[in-house]
Amino acid sequence: MSLYLCLQQLNNNLAELTAKFEKATADKLKCQQEAEATTLTINLANRLVGGLASENVRWAEAVAGFKEQVLGENLAFEVVLGIDVALRCC
Questions:
Q1: What is the pLDDT of residues 12-70, one digit of tens each?
Q2: Is the pTM of this model over 0.85?
Q3: Alpha carbons 40 and 53: distance in angstroms, whole number
Q4: SS3 call for 19
Q5: Distance in angstroms (rounded) separating the CA atoms of residues 31 and 37
Q6: What is the spatial distance between Cα 10 and Cα 29, in angstroms, rounded to a whole number?
Q7: Confidence band (pLDDT; 50, 70, 90) for 75?
Q8: Rg (CA), the chain
Q9: CA distance 69 to 78
Q10: d(CA 27, CA 36)
Q11: pLDDT tens across 5-27, in order?
């Protein structure tokens, strides 16, 4: 095999390996970008879940307060109604 053919084959191999390396590097970069985007999405989702959890606590407290308020209002209404009924009967 002549030196020229050997050099040409080495150059062809180098070009092929360079193309594979560049593709692998591009694939790696794409994977890194997707991983960063996924990490950002996960962080945002965690913040949302945390916010919703605190809202759940706040809403539960509000519901408990409303229940107490309604029970108190109903009790006062029933007392007034009972007195009214008692006074009408006599």
A1: 999 999 999 999 999 999 999 999 999 999 999 999 998 888 888 888 888 888 777 76
A2: no
A3: 20
A4: helix
A5: 10
A6: 28
A7: low
A8: 38
A9: 14
A10: 14
A11: 999 999 999 999 999 999 999 99
Structure token digits, residue 3: 């030196």
What distance in Å separates the CA atoms of residue 40 and residue 34, rounded to the nearest whole number? 10
Kindly give the residue spans of alpha helices, DSSP state H, lying in the chain. Answer: 3-89
Cα 71 to Cα 81: distance, rounded to the nearest angstrom: 15
Give φ, ψ of 64 to 5 degrees. -60, -40
Side chain identity at 75, as an amino acid letter? Answer: L
Q: Which amino acid is at 88?
A: R
Cα separation, 68 vs 74, whole angstroms: 10
Token digits for 28?
């790696």
Q: Residue for token digits 């029933």?
A: 78
Q: In residues, how long is the chain?
A: 90
End-to-end Cα, the chain, rounded Å: 129
